[in-house]
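Q: Got a minute? One more chain.
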Amino acid sequence: QVQLVESGGGLVQPGGSLRLSCAASGFAFNTYRMNWYRQAPGKERELVATISSTGGSTNYPDSVKGRFSISRDNAKNMVYLQMNSLKPEDTAVYYCYTFSRVTLEDYWGQGTQVTVSP
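A: Always. Here it is, folded:
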């Protein structure tokens, strides 16, 4: 079965950095676009980064562009989110996500908490 397992969250001071990891299994990882979302308390879930199956194309919303960087290692079935210059408004639970074109289902990880605070 499809599994997405995030790690790397934690508490960091404003201006600091964190690297999130997502371990994927149960599907043909190297053929799937992968995404990172986040959800802050009381807010809608927000897309923060997308990477194509080969890693050749990435996209970010303006809120994180220039600070966040998504990457993947298809040999290890891993996707990463490097977050720099973190701000308190980046505080949220971060989720790894993909959509299966085979089962037409959404697949989410369990999430990892990122807290940016002095």
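A: The chain is about 0% helix and 50% strand.
Q: Perfect, thanks.
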